[in-house]
Amino acid sequence: xxTEMIQKNIRNKxxxxxxxxxxxxxTIFSTSLAGMLLLVGTGIGDVYMAKNRLTANYLTQExxxxxxxxxxxLAELDPSGWTTFSTMLNNGxxxxxxxxxxxxxxxxxxxxxxCGIGNPQNxxxxxxxxxxxxxxxxxxxxxxxxxxxxxTIFKRxxxxxxxxxxxxxxxxxxxxxxxxxxxxxxxTSMSETIYDWQ
Length: 198
Prior knowledge:
Elements: H1 2-13, H2 19-77, H3 81-89, E1 101-102, E2 113-114, E3 124-127, E4 138-140, E5 150-161, E6 170-181, E7 184-195
Antiparallel strand pairs: 1-2, 3-4, 3-5, 5-6, 6-7
Helix pairs in contact: 2-3
């Protein structure tokens, strides 16, 4: 009797895993692997979003810097520089949220280009990546020197606001950069008031 029981136990140990045990093990392994892949995918998406947000913040600030440069260079070159600056910006371009404009980073002394309702493609951001000596610089599509550059996902629009209590000659410049990522539309915006310092 004892010998029979020992032989039965030995036979049971040699049988291996049942089909149900294998299926449970595979399910646990698959669930763990799917969770890790989801976590990696989310991490990659977050890194891509952070990169785009950083680039958008740079482009937003650059829009304000270009407008400040226009004011400074016109004030330096012309005794009536502020008037020239005001006229350039109030000739139907950059006047409101509907009449937004684009400014070239590569050709900052060019007049602003209407984009908003007029031609939204003018304010799309392009990058110099395909020329014979690519610089990686960003500019607006409507700029003559950048029309053949590589398109990006970003669009930069500027508009000016005259403060309601405008005792000093000033404008508030609004710079907005928007982009599409996945199914969402994102944007960053900055504002700064510049004054006539002549």
